[in-house]
Amino acid sequence: MAIKKELVDELLKDADPKAVFSSEGLLSEIKKALAERMLNAGLDQHLQGESASPPEGAAPASGNHRNGYSKKTVLTDTGAVELDIPRDRHGTFEPQLIAKYQRRFPGFDDKIVSMYARGMSVRYIQGHLRELYGIE
What we know:
Elements: H1 5-12, H2 26-50, E1 66-76, E2 79-88, H3 108-117, H4 122-133
Antiparallel strand pairs: 1-2
């Protein structure tokens, strides 16, 4: 999938070149936006699956509907990202992208195991994680 040049230009307009790749930069914002968009789409699909298509503007037949958001900080390979996780009234929505109680994007643990497998000591890995993400 190719990303349109105009879209990239729009994203980079007014962006500080030094901050684009930082942990608080553009890439982090894009990860946050994409993750939240996928989570919201997942909730939409969940709510549609629970009820037969109600009339436009009417509440779902099951009585289940959106119920705001909860904040969750997840660790990515570029740093911590705070996500707004959508909720449903009945609490039956199970996000697929970031499961309940999961605090890391998929792949994060694999990177830690990979560092250990390559011969890094546990103490060095702990120091590295503390320096990059502020975690133990």
